[in-house]
């Protein structure tokens, strides 16, 4: 029990630090009812990937995978503009959504898509956490969803400036 309490206290301190950092970054919100949040990057694709992965590591968040979708498409003989999916999460936070509704596992861990449009602009795209809460009818994890939003806003703030 003491090990759990110590770990929970460290998690709380880490999340409080993330919240303070994120307050300096403008919040991103879904612009429509499809739950998609898009943030324009001020840096090229590879630098955006590098910055986001570095910030995830600096925050002690677990990084699961990087999927280069354009390479997968090219390997299949299909042309696709640059598109890379990053999958990461903080199990002590993210699994709380799944304990509320097991179907929430469809949306966890976090998936952040970095994509380049036809004009060469790079975008970070993810599913809005409030939308995920509504999708899975989760009403008992409001603080956790707010924390997830704070964290992803903090992570993507690293690509909003040069």
What is the C-level CATH assignment?
Alpha Beta
CATH architecture: 2-Layer Sandwich
In CATH terms, the superfamily is TT1751-like domain
How many helices does DSSP assign? Answer: 6
SS content category: alpha+beta
| Contiguous runs where pLDDT drops below 50 for at least 5 residues | 1-11, 13-26
Kindly identify the CATH topology.
Answer: TATA-Binding Protein
How many β-strand stretches? 5
Largest sheet: 5 strands, antiparallel
What would the principal axes of the Cα set say about the shape?
globular
Mean pLDDT: 86
The helicity comes to 40-55%
Give the helices and strands as they follow along the chain.
HEHEHEHEEHH
Considering the chains and any ligands shown, give keywords for the structure.
162 residues; alpha+beta; TATA-Binding Protein; 5 strands; disordered N terminus
């Amino acid at each position: 029990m003491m090990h759990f309490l110590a770990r929970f206290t460290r998690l709380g301190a880490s999340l409080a630090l993330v919240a303070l950092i994120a307050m300096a970054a403008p919040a991103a919100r879904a612009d429509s009812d499809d739950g998609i949040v898009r943030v324009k990057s001020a840096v090229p694709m590879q630098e955006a990937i590098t910055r986001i992965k570095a910030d995830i590591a600096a925050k002690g968040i677990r990084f699961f995978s990087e999927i280069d979708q354009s390479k997968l498409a090219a390997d299949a003989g299909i042309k696709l503009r640059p598109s890379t999916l990053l999958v990461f999460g903080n199990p002590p936070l993210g699994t709380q959504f799944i304990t509320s509704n097991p179907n929430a596992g469809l949306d966890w861990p976090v998936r952040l898509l970095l994509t380049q449009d036809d004009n060469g602009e790079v975008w970070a795209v993810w599913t809005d956490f409030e939308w995920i809460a509504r999708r899975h009818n989760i009403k008992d994890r409001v603080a956790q969803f707010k924390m997830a939003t704070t964290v992803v806003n903090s992570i993507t703030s690293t690509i909003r400036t040069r």
